[in-house]
TrEMBL record:
This is Glycosyltransferase family 4 protein. Pfam families: Glycos_transf_1 (PF00534). GO terms for biological process: lipopolysaccharide biosynthetic process. Transmembrane segments: none annotated. It comes from Microbacterium mitrae. Residues 153-294 form the Glycosyl transferase family domain. Keywords: Transferase. The keyword Transferase applies. InterPro entries: Glyco_trans_1. GO terms for molecular function: glycosyltransferase activity.
Length: 326
């Protein structure tokens, strides 16, 4: 009888950590944790030894970390941003995705993802018509709704949730903040990146007007969204765009670059879509507009649901666990 194992090492404040937490708790097939140590994001992790698995066993990973020695593995690839990251760092990701990741995907015959934007990219990357690319979507946690309390603030503020990686484009927000003298920013970033982010704010001359936060739970994050005049999401590349969804779910508009397709798809007309990802003056004008004329937006309904996402994933896992699906 085939058994299902899950790689449950995807934890943390980031989007994949949240995805793993919500999905693994809702999986329909009974699953056992692989109980691995180390990081699933390390390329050398792909070739590690595994607990004794039978030839018909299946491993599910809610992230892209390949396990080449698994008899079969279904992964969720959220995006292919790493393949478009700056050189020379991109080189290791090109080798990793072309090697162990593509190997496990083709062997399984199916790969999961979170948006049509990512699904299109993955089809072009995998170059194998026999591989089904399944968009299981993404969900929005129950904490994010417009009816709860807002964060207490003495002055109006804008919200940023993300990190300091290149594609997050945090720099344009800091430069834009410098053009709006009365604007304040509350930014939720991973704790190890706060020092780097603070240095960037100092260079932009806005260090005194940015509050750097980390380690907030969903309820606290929802309060921060609800207290903001708008959320700024200047990403140039995203597989999904969870902060944008969480913000509009709390009734708060989003300022974003219209060229980032996955974010634009989520936001629609619930905010400001800018034509240039790097024009600090244009971003500053949008931020000033948001601060001066706060306007709630209507949250989306039905489409972004963790139960729906987990059900689609469960269907694929159950199909792979049956004799006809192997």
């Amino acid at each position: 009888m085939s058994r299902l194992f899950v790689d449950d090492r995807y934890r943390g404040e980031h989007g994949i950590g949240r995805y793993a937490r919500e999905v693994l708790a809702r999986l329909r097939p009974e699953a056992q944790p692989l109980a691995l140590d180390g990081s699933p994001y390390s390329p050398v992790d792909a070739f590690r030894s595994l607990p004794k698995l039978d030839a018909t066993d299946l491993v599910y990973s809610p992230g892209y970390g390949a396990l080449a020695r698994a008899p079969r593995q279904i992964v969720t690839i959220h995006d292919l941003i790493q393949l478009r990251s700056p050189w020379p760092g991109r080189a290791k990701f090109i080798a990793y995705y072309a090697g162990p990741v593509r190997h496990v995907v083709r062997k399984a015959g199916v790969v999961l993802t979170v948006s049509e934007t990512s699904a299109r990219d993955i089809r072009a990357w995998v170059r194998d018509d026999a591989v089904r690319v399944v968009n299981a979507g993404n969900g929005c946690s129950a904490a994010f709704h417009p009816d709860g309390p807002p964060a207490v603030a003495g002055d109006p503020y804008l919200m940023y949730v993300g990190n300091t990686r290149h594609h997050k484009n945090l720099g344009v927000v800091l430069r834009a903040l410098a053009t709006v003298p009365d604007a304040r920013l509350r930014a939720v970033v991973p704790e190890p990146e706060i020092a780097t982010a603070r240095e960037r704010a100092e260079v932009a001359g806005v260090a005194e007007r940015v509050d750097w936060l980390s380690g907030v739970d969903d309820d606290q994050l929802a309060e921060l969204y609800r207290g903001a005049s708008a959320t700024v999401m200047p990403s140039t590349d995203e597989g999904f765009g969870l902060p944008a969804l969480e913000s509009i779910a709390c009734g708060v508009p989003v300022i974003h670059w219209r060229g980032c397709e996955s974010v634009a798809e989520i936001v629609g007309d619930r905010g400001w879509a800018l034509d240039d990802a790097h024009d600090a003056h244009a971003w500053g004008e949008a931020m000033a507009s948001a601060l001066s004329s706060r306007r709630p937006v209507t949250p989306p309904t039905g489409r972004y649901n963790w139960d729906r996402t987990a059900a689609i994933i469960s269907d694929e896992l159950e199909r792979a666990l049956t004799p006809s699906g192997r």
